[in-house]
Amino acid sequence: MQTKQKQGLSIQYQDNTFEVVLDGRKILEHTPTSPCLFVGQGEEKIEMYRGNYEIEDYVVERFGLKSFEVMHESEQGFRVDFKRTSMDSETLSVAFSYENQNLKLDFSGDRKSFNRFWVRIAADSTEKVYGCGEQMSHLNLRGKHFPLWTSEPGVGRNKKTYTTFLADLHDQAGGDYYHTNYPQPTFLSSKKYFCHVDTTAYADFDFRKDHYHELQVWEVPSQIMFETGASIKELVSRLTHHLGRQPELPEWTYDGIWLGMQGGTDEVQKKIDAARDKGMKVGAVWAQDWQGKRVTSFGRRLNWNWQWDENEYPELDQKLKEWKEQGIRFLGYINPYLILDGELYKEAAENHYFVLNQQDDVYLVDFGEFDCGIVDLTNPAAFEWYKGVIQKYMIDFGLDGWMADFGEYLPTDAKLHNGEPAMLMHNAWPMLWAKVNFEAVDEAGKTDEIVYFMRAGYTGSQKYCRLLWAGDQSVNWDLDDGIASVIPAALSAGLVGNGLHHSDIGGYTSLHGNKRSKELLLRWVELAAFTPVMRSHEGNRPTDSHQYDHDEDTMNAFIRMTDVHVTLAPYLKDLVKENTEKGIPVQRPLFMEFEDDAQTYDLQYQYMLGDDVLVAPVYEEAASQWNVYLPNETWVHLWSGEEFDGGHVEVSAPIGQPPVFYRKGSGYADLFGKIREKYTPAE
């Protein structure tokens, strides 16, 4: 047995076997019968319908690179050459370089000869795995595989539910557990290392085997990176050091709820007055139809031409100033597409700023009964122009933020300005879209004043996406697509570097008989109070959904939970600052704070809000009691002040009092006590 050691990196090899160990963790294991690398050729078939993708792959050939030779050494590491057999002429070279707990595998040689690649990462049967972007059905990914391709997440997202069946039947839109707006080829292990693959190609990370994780990529990647940490917190901090971190949120974001409303200037003014007269703290209004509306069979949609609609919103330019003087910001909406009959479409078409089809015409995409062009963000001139659209028609107009929606709809047969295959740019598109928004705000000098929020993402979104939102949940109690799904979504996104997350209060999608109930809306606003941002949404069919102002009881609940959220502002600001400085997310899985507690590693519907607050949202209908797991410390129930010493406890959870606990002795105990004093009735 020969050994080569470079600080925390070692390779032990003899005959046809070797293993690579990183800081005491076995990362790769290779034998002739189970090689660690495979390459091959595949032929894919991909069809898109309104952002939903049907992907089939025929693997023409797959073969293991069984032969290897340890070659050149450097100060940082060594090189290993892999071949199918020792007699083969094609070589895939891997340079292993180590520095400060970081291991990089750089691939060279015959990379372009193959369009399928598999690597097996050493594992053990007790290991837990997390990440892969924003995952809404599973926090611990072990036991399943996860295709990584940005898309619509689906309506229902579970092939066993009736909603999913109907969505598939009518619109090919049901989705499955792995569908997400925000995939990312990154995972974290309970063995305290992360693995990140530098690729934008389609990938499928398979965690179903006991002794290895098999990562499939539809190209030989340029690099795979591993890094270890002494704790999960340190690991996430190290990951975000590489991928980027979000700036702090503007000060005004903590002033109150962001109320979603639409319908024109008079309607917005009426709703603002009614909410404030009742005592609601309104930090912003979010009017997604500021540029006009478009009604389809799906529901109330928008006019995708990003200019103020003076007919729908008369005198909006003056109202923005009035509302701002009253402490209310105005938020709008934009996405990276332009509707065929809009003025901006004409300008983009004249300047050749659109993605093209194979006939070199503008590639028109069906977004649900209307067609749009896709601004080609690989074209520097188009990129700058669209940045200018944001600056001129939104920032200069006076908007304080917006939903930067979509980013998932790049067809794989499109032709791009940069000449790259759309198959390789599809996953990169959300990052480019985030970058457009980031640079527009940054160059305007408004980073401390403006915030935009996004649902789509990929590697690099950490730096360019100011605030993530969980996308379009169904307005129901389903685990995979209802209120519960936003919890693992926030936790998984935070683990890969997007530490600022929120969701549409009440959900969004009303289809196939789903209508938002009063109880669901009340439970959702409770959850939102214990996240970085509270923002409501009327949904795609507002008249089918219970709204915050439909009755006095609901209005009072929104007033109460908004006040709780505003009271928490000093705590939330400190957490957001920590996310900016260290990359530690605001919402955290329990195991991030309690690594020695084995039970915390599979809890996906509870979370820590920072170091001190444990939140266990109620996500089942008609529940008045709730079972909570508390790690072995002394916890104070937020509403009653009762103390618990840990373990499984059942607490009363009436609407208005979600199960929330804080650590006894917390430095913020007085702050939390203010909530109890104000909102817990005297006996």
UniProtKB/TrEMBL annotation:
Glycoside hydrolase family 31 N-terminal domain boundaries: 73-159
Any single GO BP term: carbohydrate metabolic process
GO molecular function per UniProt: carbohydrate binding; hydrolase activity, hydrolyzing O-glycosyl compounds
Domain of life assignment: Bacteria
NCBIfam families, per the entry: PRK10426.1 (NF007746)
Hydrolase recorded as keyword: yes
Organism: Halobacillus faecis
Protein name: Alpha-glucosidase
Domain Glycosyl hydrolase family 31 C-terminal span(s) in chain numbering: 583-666
Family: Belongs to the glycosyl hydrolase 31 family.
